[in-house]
Amino acid sequence: MKIYHLIIICLFFGACGKSGTTTTMPVTPVISTVNITNITLNNVSFDNMLYGIAIVPSISIQFSQPINRNSTRAIMLKDANGTMISTITNFQNHDSTLLIQPSSALQYLSKYFFSITSNLQSASGGGLTTPIDKVFLTQIDSSNKFPIVDDSILLDKIQQQTLKYFVDFSHPVSGLARERNTSGDIVTTGGSGFGIMAIVAGINRHFITRSQGFMQLQKIVGFLKNTAQKVHGAFPHWLNGSTGLIVPFSVKDDGADLVETSYLLQGLLTARQYFTNSSADETNFRADINLLWNGVEWDWFRQNNQNVLYWHYSNNYSWDMNVKIQGWNECLITYVLAASSTTHAIPAAVYNSGWARGSGFINGSSYYGYPLPLGQVQGGPLFFSHYSFLGINPNGLMDAYANYTTQTKNHTLINYSYCVANPQNNYGYSNACWGLTASDIQNGYTASSPTNDIGVIAPTAAISSLPYTPTESMRALKFFYYTLGDKLWGDYGFYDAFSLKSTWFANSTLAIDQGPIIVMIENYRTGLLWNLFTSCPEVKTGMLNLGFKAPYL
C-alpha cells in the first residue's frame, strides 16, 4: 500500500510541474480562401448574359464556406453608367449563401453589371479565388405607352405623323426630301420620289390640302427642271437642295445614278396621274414632269449598247463605277421605266439578258415552307420587295420568271419566320417584333437580312409589308407604337431602327425608310399609288413589252 500511495503522489506532483500551473500549446487559426460554387439569377444559372430579367431580380450566390459579413462591400451592382445600385443582402446557410436584391425596382430594358471582387473574404480571412463580372438586361415594359385606338385611326396617325418628314422638314428651297434628319442641305433624289408619292397620299387623306401639296410639288418639279444638275437626263443620288449641284455619294459616284432616278420618276409619274385638272397650273405641271421624264437617256446607260443597264455614269470618271443593274434586288422599277420611255427606251433583250441574268436572280428554293422564285438565300433585305413596288402593283403580276404576288408575299413571310425562329437568339425577336432591311445601326448602316442579322429591327420593314402580310405587319406596327412608343416614336413617325439586345434606339429618320411606310400603308388601304402609277399609258406599254401580264395591263 505504501508503494501505491507513493506512486499516486508522484503522479500528482509530476502533473503539476514546478510552478503548479497547467501549460497549453498555442493553436494557429487556419485561413482558407473561398470559392463560388453556384450563382443564379432568378433561379436561372448566371453563367452568361441573361435577358428579360424582372426589374426586382434576386441573385443567389453559394460559397464554399462562410464569408466575412464585413467584406460584402466587394459585391456590387451597377447600371450602364457605372452608378452603384443600392442592394439588400440576406445571409443564409451559416453565411455560406447570400441572397442579393436591389433596394428598389430597376429600370426597364436596361443593362446592369454585377461583380464580386477579390476583396471578398471568407470568415477565416481568406480571399475570393476567382472574381466575377456578370451582365443582365431587364425586361421590356409591356404597358401601353399611348391610348388604344381603332386600327384605322392608328394608321391615319402613323401616315400623318410620318408625312411631316416630307412636308414640315422638306428642304425650304427645293422642296425635296433631305437624306436624313441631320442632312442639312443634302437632299436625296430617290427618297424624294418616295416623298412625292407620300404627299399624294397625304392630299388624298386630307392630312394636307390639295393646294398645299400641289404648291410643294410645283416647287420640286421647278427645281428639278431649272436648277438641279443632270447627267444625260438622269439625276445623281444626292443634290445640294439650295444650289442644285451634285453632292458626291462616294468618290466616283458624282454623276448620274439611274436607280435613284427611277425612284424619283416613279414618284413624278404618280403625281402626274393624280393632278389631272385642265387648269393652267396642273397642265404646266404635267408638261414639266413629261419634260423631265422624256429627258432621261435610259438607253445611254447600256454603255455602248450592251444588253444590260449600268447604275452610274460620271462626267469625271466615266463608267469607272462599272456596276451592272442585275437582279434580283430593288431595281426592277429601273428596267420597267427604261422600257416605258417614249424617247430612250430599251428593248426586252436588255431586261432578259441583263436584269434576269444576274447571279442572284433565280432562286427556286423554299425557306420555312415558303417557295421563293427569285433572289438571294432567304430573300435578302425587305426593301427588295418595297422600293419598286411602291408603284408597281405585284398582285396578279407575272412574267417569264416569277409570280410577283408569290415573290413579295413569300419574301416577307420568310423574313418574318426567320425572326420568329430567331436562330441567333437575338433578344426581343418575336411574332410582334420582326423586320430586317437596310437601316441605320449603331455607328453605321447595313442591309440587314436573315443572312446578315446583327440584331437590329427597322420598323419600315414590317410596316411597309402591310400589303403582303397584313396580320403579321399590323401586330408589329402595334408593338412598335404601343409597347416601344416611348423610345421609338418621334416628330416624324418611327425612328429608323432599334436593337433590344443592345438597348439601342436610333434617333434618326431617313427619307428612303419613312416614305415606304406612308405609301405602302396607303396601298394596303386603298391601292391608291399602285393604281396611279400603273395607269400611266407608257408604263403599261413598257411592261407589256417586257413580257409582263397583270389584270391592270
TrEMBL record:
Keywords: Signal. InterPro entries: Glycoamylase-like_cons_dom (IPR019282), SbsA_Ig (IPR032812). Residues 42-135 form the SbsA Ig-like domain. Residues 1-17 form the signal peptide. Residues 324-537 form the Glycoamylase-like domain. Gene3D superfamilies: 1.50.10.140. This is Glucoamylase family protein. It comes from Parasediminibacterium paludis. The lineage of its organism: Bacteria, Pseudomonadati, Bacteroidota, Chitinophagia, Chitinophagales.
